[in-house]
Design a protein that fits this description.
This protein is mainly α and 139 residues long. The chain is built from 5 helices and 3 strands; from the N terminus they run ααβαββαα. It has one domain. Helix 3 links the parallel strand 1 and strand 2.
Length: 139
Amino acid sequence: MLCPGFHDYIASSTPRAGRGPQIKALEIDHEYKVPPGVEAYERHKKEGAVTMAIYGTPHIYALAAKLTEDRIPGTSPGFGSAAAADGTRYPYIFPIAATYWSQGAAAVDFAKKQLGGSLKGKKIAFIFYDNPPAASRSR
């Protein structure tokens, strides 16, 4: 649902009738595979892209250095490198939602508050679903 929302946002914020800069959103289905994602980045960069909406943890890792080197800002919607939240270290990656790690920290903080402010003597288990999105898609 991210792509339709992205296109709706652009349609609602792009000026009508040629007034102001026109925004063109290009998208590709990289099937959550890094090589097609990196190829699309390079192609869009050559076509003059001024920002990239990157989707996929492995893609953020693969493109972090390129975004900085090319000075192209890229968004990371809620995943990727937790270190990207440090804008001094990654000035061209913009997390636009809570990362997996910040979500986990919020869950622990919530549990601590529910338990009276202390986790002393408590054990915390983190269970995660380790399945890339493309593997769960039907073909």
